Write a sequence for this structure.
């Protein structure tokens, strides 16, 4: 079985008279001349993961459409915005039930809320199936090390990419998801670059853009790149540029079988188990940046005492028995400016990508970049 790309076949064999007999003859001629543009066929596991990701996307879009219908009913009757954060949460539904509206509109809202609850249950089942399918996939675990990528995004990207060996360079993968700019050039004139092509898998492109927005909020090289592009071109173009960089980064990680060097907090087995739990239980937030809150030392698997001048604070188990030793060695006291200054001696000043003036900015030598340690974790990391 061979699947051909219909866009390329149409560009090669365009005819004004289009019938099944003529199309069959054109396809047979192209196949005989070995000029038929074929499409890569995924294996059974990748195809199943693609179906699960597509069904989850449909459920999310249906849920968003129902929420928009409820908001439209409220706007029609000039009801002020909900004072609570989530209109469809517990407090939001109590506030919604107290609003004065016609009986048919109240019945419609109740019907939408029941449908929304059913979709949330279906979404929990799909999340469980996706987590179980991607739990043993090394590509999913490798993509989870990227800042802003959660389990759902990693599974969706792994399903869309499939065999990364079919892309000889990262530009091919960027074109596959439609994040490459359009180029117009004629003769010896200058090439004009326009908007992105938006060809290929639209769902994978949307997940990369959402992951780019989450990565732009976390300290690191991706945020620095986002701020640099935003200063010149605006935040929308900067987000698309970060999404393109994420696609290139995915190609390098999957091709070289390596983890991201500036990786986010690792997903522990307990975190993956929460995604693989039974439907209906409390799940983690579905935002791309919803990662476990850990300090930089815990993320890198390194204690603060490994740096010169940094003292290790006692644990709860040893604090009761070692109070006298702590008084002599200085354990348990707050770090002063001298401690931070001593920790920075002998380090390269530009080896870390924290923003200038950030309380977590430390200097780290070049050979120890993979085991970066900060003085304290950022407030909103």
């Amino acid at each position: 079985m061979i699947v051909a790309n219909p866009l390329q076949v149409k560009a090669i064999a365009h005819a004004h008279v289009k019938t099944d007999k003529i199309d069959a003859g054109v396809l047979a001629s192209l196949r005989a001349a070995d000029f038929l543009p074929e499409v890569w066929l995924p294996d059974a596991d990748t195809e199943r993961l693609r179906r699960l990701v597509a069904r989850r996307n449909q459920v999310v879009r249906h849920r968003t459409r129902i929420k928009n219908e409820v908001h439209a009913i409220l706007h029609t009757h000039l009801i002020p915005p909900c004072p609570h954060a989530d209109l469809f949460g517990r407090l939001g539904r109590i506030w919604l039930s107290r609003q004065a509206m016609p009986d048919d509109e109240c019945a419609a809202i109740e019907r939408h809320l029941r449908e929304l609850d059913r979709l949330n249950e279906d979404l929990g089942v799909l999340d469980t199936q996706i987590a179980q399918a991607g739990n043993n996939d090394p590509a999913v675990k490798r993509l989870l090390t990227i800042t802003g990528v959660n389990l759902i995004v990693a599974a969706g990207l792994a399903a869309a990419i499939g065999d990364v060996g079919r892309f000889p360079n990262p530009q091919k993968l960027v074109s596959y998801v439609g994040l490459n700019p359009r180029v117009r050039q004629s003769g010896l004139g200058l090439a004009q670059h326009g908007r992105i092509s938006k060809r290929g898998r639209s769902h994978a492109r949307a997940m990369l853009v959402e992951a780019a927005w989450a990565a732009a909020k976390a300290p690191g090289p991706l945020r620095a790149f986002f701020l640099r592009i935003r200063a010149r071109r605006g935040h929308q173009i900067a987000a698309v540029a970060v999404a393109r960089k994420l696609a290139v980064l995915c190609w390098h990680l999957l091709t070289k079988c390596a983890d991201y060097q500036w990786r986010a907090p690792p997903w522990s087995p307990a975190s993956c188990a929460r995604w693989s739990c039974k439907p209906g239980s409390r799940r983690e937030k579905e935002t791309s940046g919803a990662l476990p809150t850990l300090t930089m030392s815990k993320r890198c698997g390194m204690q603060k005492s490994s740096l010169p001048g940094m003292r290790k604070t006692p644990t709860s188990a040893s604090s009761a028995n070692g109070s006298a030793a702590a008084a002599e060695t200085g354990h348990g006291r707050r770090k002063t400016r001298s401690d931070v200054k001593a920790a920075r001696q002998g380090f390269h000043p530009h080896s870390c990508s924290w923003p200038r003036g950030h309380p977590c900015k430390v200097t780290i030598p070049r050979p120890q970049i993979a085991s970066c340690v900060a003085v304290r974790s950022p407030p909103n990391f």
Q: What stands out?
A: The beta strands are 181-184, 192-196. Residues 46-134 form one domain. The chain has four domains: 1-39, 46-134, 138-182+193-292, 295-315+335-381. The first helix runs from residue 6 to 12.
